[in-house]
Design a protein that fits this description.
The protein is α/β, with parallel strands linked by helices and about 375 residues long. It is about 50% helix and about 10% strand. A seven-stranded mixed beta sheet has the order 3-2-1-4-6-5-7. β2, α2 and β3 form a beta-alpha-beta unit. α5 packs across α11. The radius of gyration is 24 Å and the shape is elongated.
């Protein structure tokens, strides 16, 4: 198996020597090379060239003067320049342990997988190397949102945010990738019909330097999600907007007949919960209705969640009106906006969650694939 380990770097000079040393030990027995795609503005390129002179594994350097596409763009450049039929993508800070590389490659060899994902969230994996509870929360929430927006393509992927994976380059359309930001795996999985298998790994501490994660990266991630999946979420938004308008209209109409705003809010919520479910069934998740749950179970889950969510919103609505003096209809509109993403995630991940044993599973090389992956809208 011919392998290229692609390492995108930005000012990671202190980590290069240790990374290459451990990679040299890890890939012994493989026809392997290491390709650094470097966007650094410090001495990192010089350090890579120096380490290459004594490395046990061949080391190449591709330095970019213009970092088009950020980290994702660097990975795509590496995929294009790779000599190997398989490419392992990993960070240069040693939070992705080089000792996992042969594990990913052996799994690739033993299955029909096109992509082998090193996951922090599958059995035995751990995200302990993330800095603090906030980054843990952001990582978990980001993965959940991605899986909600791509419930079919990511049905068997617990960690679409990882930057550590192996990919068979012949299985993906490099020209079709639109790299931006730093989550290239999500780009690959969303734009290509590939078979995926996961291996657990422990996300480690940085060897040296500081994390490159920023608030701006988070905004770019949201832009990436929007660009990749505007279909299902936009339809969900239209249904939600229609339901919100009806909710507000019913509440306003009842108030005109002298009904207090709190009972009016309850009635309007009950009517729109039923109507929204019918619209979701026919216009948003119609392709996922045959995933093994009856319409009555889907309705029960949807009604229960929306009823609880509405009950939680009512005290908040009262607080907004009483303590801030906000007009009731405006306060209700604000609570509906806040609840939008929460409802989308619940319906995508619970009510209409695809079965894990659906057609795009990976089988051993001795068997046949169980089916083909279905396109999402």
């Amino acid at each position: 198996m011919q392998v290229t380990v692609v390492v995108p770097t930005f000012n990671e000079g202190p980590n290069v020597g240790e990374l290459v040393r451990r990679l040299g030990d890890a890939v012994e027995g493989f026809d392997a090379e290491v390709l650094f795609v470097d966007d650094s503005r410090d001495e990192t390129p010089d350090e890579i060239r120096h380490v290459a002179t004594t490395s046990r594994v061949p080391v190449r350097l591709l330095h970019r003067d213009e970092p088009v596409g950020g980290l994702s763009g660097a990975v795509v450049e590496g995929l294009r320049a790779a000599h190997g039929e398989w490419v392992v993508v990993m960070d240069g800070d040693l939070q992705h342990p080089p000792e996992m590389v042969p594990v990913l490659l052996e799994t690739a060899r033993e299955t029909t997988a096109d992509v082998v994902v090193a996951s922090r969230y599958v059995g035995g994996g751990d995200a302990g190397g993330l800095d603090g509870r906030w980054r843990h929360l952001v990582s978990t929430a980001s993965s959940l949102l991605a899986r909600s927006m791509f419930p079919v393509r990511l049905r068997n992927v617990t960690d679409p945010m990882t930057g550590f994976f192996a990919v068979r380059t012949a299985s993906i359309d490099l020209a079709g990738l639109r790299p931006r930001g730093f989550k290239i795996l999500l780009e690959i999985l969303a734009r290509n019909k590939v078979e995926v298998v996961e291996e657990p790994f422990v996300f480690g501490e940085r060897f040296a330097g500081e994390s490159k994660a920023t608030f701006a990266n988070g905004l770019r991630y949201l832009q990436q999600l929007t660009a990749l999946r505007f279909g299902r979420l936009s339809t969900f938004a239209l249904v939600g907007a229609f339901g919100a308008v009806m909710n507000l209209a019913i509440m306003w109409g009842l108030e005109q007949f002298g009904v207090h705003y709190m009972p009016a809010a309850v009635v309007s919520a009950a009517v729109t919960i039923v109507m929204n479910f019918l619209l979701l069934e026919h216009f948003v998740f119609h392709d996922l209705r045959s995933e093994g749950r009856s319409v009555w179970k889907r309705a029960a889950q949807s009604f229960t969640f929306n009823g609880i969510e509405a009950a939680v919103r009512l005290p908040f609505l009262h607080w907004l009106v009483v303590l801030t003096g906000m007009p009731p209809v405006l306060a209700q509109a604000l609570t509906l906006v806040v609840a939008f993403l929460l409802r989308f995630v619940f319906h995508a991940q619970v009510v209409y969650r695809p079965r894990k044993d659906a057609p795009d599973r990976v089988t051993p090389l001795t068997g046949e694939p169980t089916g083909t992956t279905r396109d999402e809208e």
